[in-house]
Amino acid sequence: MIIIGCICQGNGIGKDGKIPWKNKSDMAFFRKKTDGCTVLVGKNTILPPLKNRNIVVLESRDTIDKLEYRDALLIGGSKVWIDAFIKGYVNEIYLTVIDEYYECDTFFPVQYLHNFNLEYIEKLDEKTRIFYYKKI
Ligand SMILES: NC(=O)c1ccc[n+]([C@@H]2O[C@H](COP(=O)([O-])OP(=O)(O)OC[C@H]3O[C@@H](n4cnc5c(N)ncnc54)[C@H](OP(=O)(O)O)[C@@H]3O)[C@@H](O)[C@H]2O)c1
Predict the structure, then answer these.
(1) pLDDT in tens, 49-67
(2) Does the pLDDT of residue 30 top 90, yes or no?
(3) Percent composition of the chain: helix, strand, coil (DSSP 3-state, to 5)
C-alpha cells in the first residue's frame, strides 16, 4: 500500500474529523496522485467530493486485509495508517509537510518512519514540501 498524507508542524493531521487547513499545492498533488485509483479511507475521515476514484471507506477492521487492496492508496486517518504499518502493508509514503502550525487532535504516527528510507524531498511552494519514503 502507498500512504498519502499531509501533516503540519507538530505532525498534526486533523481536528474534529476534518483537516484544519486548506493547502492548494497539496490538494493539487493529492488529486493528481489519486486520479483513477482505488483509495482506502478510515470511517472517521470526512472526505471532500472526489470524482473518478474508487473510494473504499474502511468500516470493518478486516477490510484492509483484502488482497485486492495491497496496491491501493491509503489516505488516512491515523488509526488505519497505524494498522497498516503494524501489519507491514505499507511500502511507500508520500508525506506532505506544511511549515505552519495548526491545532490538531489527530497526528501522523511518525514512530513507524524508522522502517523507511527518505528517497527525496520535493518543494511544492514556500511552505509546502513532499517527503517521499520507501520501505527499507
Ligand atoms: N492530513 C491528512 O492527510 C489526513 C488524512 C486523512 C484523515 N485525516 C484526519 O484524521 C482524522 C481521522 O483519523 P482517525 O485516526 O480518527 O480515524 P480513521 O483512521 O479515519 O478511521 C478509524 C476508524 O475506522 C475504522 N477502521 C476500519 N478499518 C480499520 C483498521 N484496519 N484499523 C483501524 N481502524 C479501522 C475503525 O472503526 P471502529 O473503531 O468502529 O472499529 C476506526 O475507529 C480526521 O480529523 C481526518 O480529517 C487527515
Answers:
(1) 889 999 999 999 999 999 9
(2) yes
(3) 25, 35, 40
Residue 47's pLDDT band (cuts 50, 70, 90): confident
Residue 125 Cα, ligand 1 centroid: separation in angstroms? 28
Query: 74 in ligand 1 pocket by Cβ < 6 Å?
Result: no
Atom of ligand 1 nearest to the CA of 59: 27
Burial 68-89 (b: 16+ CB within 10 A, else e): ebeebbbbbbbbbbebbbeeeb
Range of the domain at 13: 2-135
Q: What percent of the chain is modeled with pLDDT above 70?
A: 100
**Reduced 3-state DSSP string for 66-130:** CHHHCCCEECCCHHHHHHHHHCCCCCEEEEEEECCCCCCCEECCHHHHHHEEEEEEEEEECCEEE
**In this structure, what CATH number is given to the domain that contains residue 31?**
3.40.430.10
Q: How many domains does the chain have?
A: 1
Tell me which residue has its CA closest to atom 16 in ligand 1: 44
